[in-house]
Amino acid sequence: MTTQEWKFTAKDIAAKPDLFLSGHRACAGCAPVSVLRLVMKATRGPTIVTQATGCMEIVGSIYPYTSWALPWLHTAFENAAANASGIDAAIKIMRKKGKIKDEYVDVIAIAGDGGTLDIGLQALSGAVERGHDFLFVLYDNEGYMNTGIQRSSSTPIGASTTTSPAGSVIPGKLEKKKPITEIMLAHEMEYVATATPYYWKDLITKVRKGLEVEGPAFLHVFAPCPRGWRSDPAKSMEYSKLSVETCVFPIWEAVNGKRQLSTPSKVISLAPQKKKPVKAYLEGQGRFRHLFTPQNAHIIEEIQRSTDERWEKLLQKCASGAT
Amino acid sequence: MEHQIKRDTVAMNGDEAVAFAVKQCDVDVVAAYPITPQTIIVEKFSEYVANGEVQTQYVCTESEHSAMTACLAAAAAGARTFTASASAGLALMHEMLFVTSGSRVPVVMAVANRALSAPLNIHGDHSDAMAERDSGWIQIYVENAQEAYDSIIQAFKIAEDTTISIPLMVCLDGFTISHTLERVDILPDDLVKHYVGERGYPMVLTHEGKTVPFKLDPANPMTMGPNALQNYYFEFKRQQEEAMKHALKRIREINSEYAKISGRGYGNGLVDKYQLDDAEIAIVVLGSTAGTLKVIVDQLRQEGIKAGVLRIRSFRPFPVEDVIHALKDVKAVAVMDKSMSPGGLGAAVFSEVRNALYDSKQRPILVNYIFGLGGRDNSPRDLRKVYEDLLHIARTGQAEKAVNYLGLRE
Fold it and tell me: Domain range for residue A64?
């Protein structure tokens, strides 16, 4: 990875032509689609994008239209990282044989939480183990939103989805969210980071860093989905911000396993009084509405407790320099 | 012509012959996962990579699903690609086989045919490839290691033909061909390289209005693998049928072209007829069994019995006209299947042949023999019995049962 940090200004970003174009069919207030646009702002040259099946794949590729101004491939749901493996292998050998003249071609694989934590985990782990040169971007909206808001292993505890509905006996999802970044860090990757689109400059910088790594890099982007979260479409960026302010989704990066908080989370670590209660994040989201009743109050307490615990652990990891 | 052809004769099993042909075809990317009985292919090819004998990016994937995906994606990025699989591995690729053919990329795969579980069985039959009959892949079934070698070389020519651009599987019988040492004549490296040539690409119109090669190229952005709804999906699928029609023509032509450089041809490329011209009884079969049947036919002919063999080499595309023509004067025909379709009227090859003959004014009495499942050996004596049954059917003019099982404990 280059030691020189990539610098850019808002003016540069605005001047750079979009590579993910308007006219796509995403819902109003969709944060994942903002993520796509921001990710594309970070590209540095010849780039190929591949996507897993999902909301962000279908909204931009309905034949005969496309929102993609760069080469783009979709094949199936569980294999975005295997697509990247094949593209990377082809680029490497064809460059060696002189069939590709470009000095480098960046490969970005994009998948939702289902295509990353659940059905796509095997292909992702395999591609990272083999050391393919690609950036994997997970846009995490915490459920299978494309198929109608079903539970994934990324859905947080307490959330009501169509396959973990809040009923009279079971109060929504009972299980914790799968710690995907810890799993990826265990692969000893050169670059693993988390981001969320409210902090757009942080997100773009991290994408660029991931692209500059020669080998696999992983970026976990937290992206509110107003349809799936049953939240106000106008407030998606607010929830993106609140997820960091409540430490539900702290943002950080790990270079060669050394973890460091990114500025918005760093501020909270230095001034703990700025840390907001999880209630501020949960309220207003329809998927958590059932928790705001006397009989389920203990679940909110449990979410607060586990959020605090994860945050403390993260602070320790950042302090000790361990993954 | 044949005496001028420079050739070396080597001893190889079918898997080694496949690996050697792939080596000579200057393949860019091989992505594969080991499974018996194709493993020797990937092992042998790994040695070529380790010893610097090939310029190939070899990707040891974590599953067959990812192997097929990586081949698809590499081919989409412009690479010549190859993989090999069998049985459960092919079944795990099932989803991606359809995506690969639908994406119109010319991946070539060797399938060392093997039974599907359960019960677990590693031995040869055609259950795996027959389950992928409708996946949109060209399927070529070979008779021996020599044909496996020749067919891999031809496969790249066929699949990568810009009027076709669909994937192709070369099917070789597990163990019977994959693991049996045979005499194989090989062509010089430079001759094969020159014959196969560089991969070409169909030309397509991009959103920017440019006509460019069909591949992922930063200079000419293209959206590959789109979402096609009720208004376009059907047209995509219909185009695959057109490609198969082109393949039917090119498989024949390439069989002739290849015969000129190698001195070897396999029937007309689509079907291989043996002693059929005046045959009264005949067996239709795929793969290595045809070799045994040819020996039996020679014996029967010496006894004055007019027997023949029709080996179908191209099962997809299915050579309807050739099958009708080959069987029109035969009185009784047995179609032999190394797979089953539980609950159906006979198995895959039988259904196909029967379907083809329906419109033929002149057609034989047709029966089905299911045999060899899970690698069950069928001796020449068993196979001779099928001809004896056919003689009886030809004489009496009727068959007792449409579907029969050969060499089975019942």
Answer: 10-320
